[in-house]
# Entry
Amino acid sequence: MKVAALSGGVGGARMLRGLTALDDVELTAIVNVGDDDLIYGVHVSPDIDTVIYTLAGLEGAAGWGLADDSNAVMSVLEKFPIDTWFRIGDRDLATSLFRQARLHAGWTLSQVTTAQSAVFGLRASILPVTDEPIRTEVHVPGEGWLPFQSYFVDRQHRPPVDDIRFSGVESAAPAPGVIAAIQDADVVVIGPSNPPLSIWPILAVEGVADAVGSAKRVVGVSPLFGGRPLKGPADNVMQGLGLPAGTAGIVAAYPGLLDELVIDTMDESDVELDVGEVQLRVLPTRISDGAAATDLAAKLLGR
Amino acid sequence: MKVAALSGGVGGARMLRGLTALDDVELTAIVNVGDDDLIYGVHVSPDIDTVIYTLAGLEGAAGWGLADDSNAVMSVLEKFPIDTWFRIGDRDLATSLFRQARLHAGWTLSQVTTAQSAVFGLRASILPVTDEPIRTEVHVPGEGWLPFQSYFVDRQHRPPVDDIRFSGVESAAPAPGVIAAIQDADVVVIGPSNPPLSIWPILAVEGVADAVGSAKRVVGVSPLFGGRPLKGPADNVMQGLGLPAGTAGIVAAYPGLLDELVIDTMDESDVELDVGEVQLRVLPTRISDGAAATDLAAKLLGR
# Structure
């Protein structure tokens, strides 16, 4: 069974881990790169790394970086006159230096990601949605546009957001294999990631939303639990952008794309909502460990 | 007393350490940047770093990098499909990430170097000879032009060299303060560095050789001991470029620039050479520790 999954970082990555644990699933993960940035002049791809580390079972407890990483570089860098709010562990930095070196040598981000997946022994295909630089920026009333990492990491996603844009997306072609993976998929899964911040930049790349709209079957997984995300600013951002609260907002974030939306048992009463053609399905969606991930993935696929 | 010193890495750096130990010396070090390169896509400045680490007393035993550095990043990076012949320790990498970040943010290499010197608590002014990228390349018969680091580190300076060039030097202006430091100096010292590989790229920058030629007094220090360098390929490179062997070759490498050349006691018999107007002076030039560095520096300046 072929599955294409759209994913941001933590929540989406955990769902992918469940999907890849199913023997007969051929998984292609299409990953957000709107969070990419040059940090200390080095190209970081936080969502790709979180997906790869999580699929390898090596993810850090905070949901990003590697577990038990050391901090020799950062502990010295912070003595220099430079902002060091973006913390990156030594082994995590090695991943980014590999990427930086290869991009500088002319590789595409796809090629880097494929090589990186092989180093971590992954079975699934991990594709950046595009090889070209797109940068998510959020608009903060009274402040203007902030780069994603400034908003999310430095400002800890506290400022209110009333608009969002994906700089560079107009000229960004989908990476090789992205459209085909969606078209060939028996099921397209939209992971439990922040819809505006993590999934919209994927859908904004030319041809992706159309391919998802024409896919055989599209199943979304809500990132909300009782109307709120486990962490991160999904509810605040959705509200700031004028989307309805809760399950209705998730449906509204993906207009015309979903055949089915899986919501958590905490939101069970939402099955009464009028969400048009979208079928709402209640499952325990909290992914506390690998077994929970596999269980959710199996149920998602109707096993 | 104002001293301007032209320096490459190890040998030159050790001499600078002696000069900066003299209370009444106001030292400006003008440092080679022809060895600079993008390593793993990050700007490294090996000679600047060696000078700064050495002046801070923190240099690695090999003559580059920091003493007792850890290798968390490299030990992971080498698992990726990438050449890792350029080894860089974790703390040394922090220096390069600071530089990379600041260059990317629009700082000049001079500005980076000044900030870096402050972090390491240096008293001397450390100036890159130019803020613009110049790249030393060596020509290997039958192979063509090699970037400096490929030749020096990857190939361990084993290939024969029959030509040398400094890519980009035609359009490289001297960094702010470089020409003035030479003009204002009571003594210009050309350190015991490899003349073609480390000092020529400094002299090749517009206006530098002219300023040195017009300086009040120019004292060179030979990097040779019995006609050979302590390490590195100075003798082989000089031979390959058609320069005479030994002391005569050092004099020939700096035509019209030297008032005096200090040679080691191992080359004492060379004082009989006909080297035109250049005064040859014999001193113990082996810099085994800080005391030897200070002693040599004092004697250099006629104390």
Summary: Chain B touches chain A through 33 residues (CB under 8 Å). The mean pLDDT of chain B is 96. Chain B is about 35% helix and 20% strand. The radius of gyration of chain B is 18 Å.
